[in-house]
Amino acid sequence: MSMAYLYGKKFVGLITPTITALREELYNTPYSNIDWGKVSNCCAEEDLHNPRSQVRNIVLVCLKKFVEPMLNWWPTNKLRGRALSKLMEQIHYNNETTEYITICPVDKALNMICCWVENPNSDAFKKHLPRVYDYLWIAEDGMKAKIYDGCQNWETPFIVQAMCSTNLINEFGPTIKKAHDFMKKSQVLRNLPDYERFYRHRSKGSWTLSTIDNGWPISDGTAETLKNKDGSICTYERRRTATWVELLNPSESFKNIVIDHPTSECTASVIDGMVLFKELYPQYRSEEVGNCIKNAVKYVEGKQLKDGSWYGSWGICFTYGTMFAVKGLGAAGRNYYNSSSIRKACKFLLSKQQSTGGWGESYLSNYTEEYVDSGTPHTVETAWAMLGLIYGGQAEIDPVPLYRAAQVLMSMQLETGEFPQQEHAGCANSAFYFNYPNYRNLFPIMALGEFRRRLVANKN
Fold first, then answer.
1. Which residue among 149, 220, 260, 272 is the active-site one?
2. Squalene cyclase C-terminal domain location, by residue (predicted)?
3. Mean pLDDT of the residues in the chain
4. Which pLDDT score, from 0 to 100, does residue 432 have?
C-alpha cells in the first residue's frame, strides 16, 4: 500500500549529498544514464525465485500503457485522488492498531515516509519516530535491524517447555512464573475496531509473535479463528480468496505472498494446543474442538510427502516441518504402531542422519523443495530431528540413533553452557532466511531433556 501511495503521489525526496553518494555506491552505472523503463522488470538470476506469470505481465502492460496515462488527466485523476485517500486511511489504520510498529521494518519505514509526505508535522509521523528503536539492536559486530519487532510470545513458551523437559522446574520456579505472567499479560483481549472494513481478522483471545503492541495475531495463539474449510491453519488470517491470485504476485524474489497460505507446522501446533485445551476443559464447545482436531489431523496427514517428510515454511526446512507434524499427530493419538505417517516420518529423519550422528540441512532445501544436506551437524536441526524421533516413539523402538545425536549436541556445547551460533534456522517465503536468537539454546536443551525423560521412563 505504501509503495502504491508514494508512486501515485509521484513523490521524489530532496536530492542531498547522502542520496547522491548512495546512488554512486549502489549502481554500477551512473544513475542519470539508467533507463528505468527498460530495467524495471530486470531481476538477478540468483534472486529469481518466482518468475513472472503471463497474466501478471499482461496486467502490468495494460496498467502502464493505458490506465496510467488516463489517471493523469481530468476527470479520471479524481479517481486516483480518491484511491490515494483510501490508501492513507488503510496505512493510518495499520499504524494505529500496531502502536506504530506495523508488521515489519520495511513496512514501517515506508508507512513512516507516507505519513511524512502527507504532513511532515503530523502526529502520525511523530508517533512513528520512537518506535524505530523496536527494530534496532546492537550485536557483537555493530548495530543491526531485526526483521520483526521481536519474537517474545513465540520463544517464551518454547523456553518454558525446554525447562520443563529437564525435570528441573523446581530450580526455575520464579523464572517460569514470570514467563507465565508475561504470557497472560500479552494476550490480546479485544478485537480491533472496525476490523472487517479494513480487511483484518478478529484478534480477541490471540497472541502476537512479539508483544501485545504488535497487533497481528498468529495461529499458534489462535485456533478456530484462523481455521480454513479444509481444516488447515494459516499464519495470520484465514484464507479468504482463491490461490490463483498468486499469478498477480508482484515479487520475483518471494513466493506465496499475495494471500496467507496454510502450513503444516501451524496446523500441527494448533492440534497440539487444542488437544491440551480439550483435556483441561472437556465440556467447552467439545464438538467444535473435536472437529477442529479431526480436520486438522486429516490435513496434516494429507500434506506428508512421499519420502515421509513435511515441508517447513517457517524454518529450515523438512527437518523443521517434520518435527512439528509428528508432534501434532502424536498429540492427537497417532504413534509409531498405529500410524503409517509416523513410521514414514521416523524413517525419513533416520535416513538424513549424518555419519557424525547429527543432522544438518541447508537453507537451499526451502528453495529447491528437496532435502539438501549441509554436510555438517547443526545444533538446532539436530535437536529438531531428535524431537521428531522422540515424539514418534523412536526412543522405545531403537534409542541408538538418539544416543548418537545426544553425543553430538553435548560435544558442541560451549564452556559457558550455551550452544554455538550457526547458520540461520528461520525462513519465510522460501527465500528469506533469518535467525531466532534463542533457538540455539532452547531446542538442544529440550531435545536432551525429552530424551533423558523417555530413557528414565523406559527403565522404570
1. 220
2. 225-453
3. 90
4. 83
